[in-house]
Amino acid sequence: MTDTGTTTKTSLNKFEKFKAEKDGLAVKAEIEKFAALGWEAMDETDRDHRLKWVGVFFRPVTPGKFMMRLRMPNGILTSDQMRVLAEVLQRYGDDGSADITTRQNIQLRGIRIEDLPDIFNKFQNVGLTSVQSGMDNVRNITGDPVAGLDADELFDTRDLVQQIQDMLTNKGEGNPEFTNLPRKFNIAITGGRDNSVHAEINDLAFVPAFKEAGEQGSRGVGEEYLSQTSARKFGFNILVGGFFSAKRCDAAIPLNAWVAPEDVVAVCRAVLEVFRDNGSRANRLKSRLMWLIDEWGIDKLRAEVEQRLGKSFLPAAPKDEIDWEKRDHIGVYKQKQPGMNYVGFHIPVGRLYADDMFEIARLAEVYGSGEIRLTVEQNIIIPNISDGSLPTFLAEPLLQRFSINPGTLERSLVSCTGAQFCNFALIETKNRALATIQALEADLTFTQPVRIHWTGCPNSCGQPQVADIGLMGTKARKDGKAVEGVDIYMGGKVGKEAHLGTCAIKGIPCEDLQPVLQDILIKNFGAKLKQEALVEV
Ligand code: SRM
Ligand code: SF4
């Protein structure tokens, strides 16, 4: 390892030091002890940091009420799993809530440490895991939310995503091989045409690409696969190094490598090993994969990965198959299975309560196959609803609250956790995000969708750089005083030819934001004041 191996212990950052003293995953064996001790008596490093290796987050904003981050491979869960999550929350009354995250995942709130043994038992009974979901681990692996349903998909990502998760978590039990990365790591894999996972903002992403049989060149990953037939073959072009942080944001760049589906898990393993053993462990602000690419160059990264793989890559296919605008999946859509539909409904800023979750589980069972899916836009899809049961499903009261046809701005609103629960936050986000778009929708009419993302601080969990309008919490000044404010990002493009937006306006006090947004919506996105629209009619 570059830093752990060749630099002295004194140059390791404080996180590396506590990881070297005791691996984060070690707390898994101590859950009963922590439950008996209570959070106030626990060792602080175990409580504030190592518990994140089992997905349990101490919240300084609500001490004693922990957050639990699950893993939902490809954003898919069953009605039984959803019901267990709801049961866990139910016991906490008003403190219990859940959020769908920007990585197609679920977080629970209000969790008491004394309940953890029981909660982990419940999780195990229904095949849920929260292992390695925080700190220096690989986050939830994202895949197409309509994988296996979409008639136009090129590859169904579900099984691959599950295999990658199983490899890196030892089937949810925890895998010490990958519990001490230099920093967090994000993986996405897409087999659809619309880049539904935001491939460009992941440390490692696989995007669909066909390879012509004659193209193999030197012996490499996938050559055997290509030689099986003269027809062109499906696989993935590999992107690396995409990430957001307070210090720097970058879109992923091509590794110039193509991989057949059966080699994807091995490639993930190889890239993670290279990152684990060579990523910087000195400066935590410079530890993500892109910093290693800066140091080495892309050719050296590829060569190191090939060495771990034991074979060389075929060069990337000249073009990938991401040629659609991104879909949001809200509404009713035909599946590739005849007579079947999937229905996406909008969960405002991803916030759910136990009663909602019980009801979603019931609807998925009564009308669908019991399956529930999550999107990176923090919404829910229920698949496998037959044509015959669709009308009754659409009349269900829950769909009045979680609409299949929300307002233009509401429809694509995304928000990170913000000050309600996150101590990094510089502003409150979720409630403010909802209030702001409700006011804008009351005054304006729209001719095109506008994607607004809120994020409470420069860590960018709410991905303001992928939005049409991104709002990032900051401290602004008004009348000589520091007040809650936002920097405004513009120009983010998703789907085909995705690129990141950049900061266009700095330091708008939140209390003055409404007219500024109204102006931007009118000038840049063709919105009209309702009164003007009436006059024109
Ligand atoms: Fe994040 C840290 C919430 C997606 C970049 N993120 C945090 C923490 C854990 C900070 C903390 O301890 O309070 C936040 C927990 C707040 C809470 O109580 O909920 C937090 N991040 C979230 C979630 C829940 C936002 C949401 O409302 O959806 C998302 C959980 C995803 C998941 O299921 O795992 C979430 N975070 C992201 C994303 C978006 C993505 O992955 O597409 C990013 C930017 C992409 C990236 O990482 O490259 C992101 N979060 C960060 C960073 C900056 C990372 C860095 O390299 O500096 C931090 C701070 C850190 O890790 O030190 C952070
Ligand atoms: Fe917290 Fe900042 Fe991430 Fe929002 S962007 S969840 S405020 S760390």
TrEMBL record:
Annotated Nitrite/Sulfite reductase ferredoxin-like domain residues: 64-124, 333-397
Source taxon at top rank: Bacteria
Molecular function GO terms recorded: 4 iron, 4 sulfur cluster binding; ferredoxin-nitrite reductase activity; heme binding; metal ion binding
Domain Nitrite/sulphite reductase 4Fe-4S: 135-312, 411-520
EC numbers, comma separated: 1.7.7.1
Keyword Lyase found: no
Iron found in the keyword field: yes
Keywords, comma-separated and alphabetical: 4Fe-4S, Heme, Iron, Iron-sulfur, Metal-binding, Oxidoreductase
Record-stated family: Belongs to the nitrite and sulfite reductase 4Fe-4S domain family.
NCBIfam families associated with the record: PRK09566.1 (NF007125)
Annotated protein name in UniProt: Ferredoxin--nitrite reductase
Source organism: Nostoc piscinale CENA21
Lineage start: Bacteria, Bacillati, Cyanobacteriota, Cyanophyceae, Nostocales
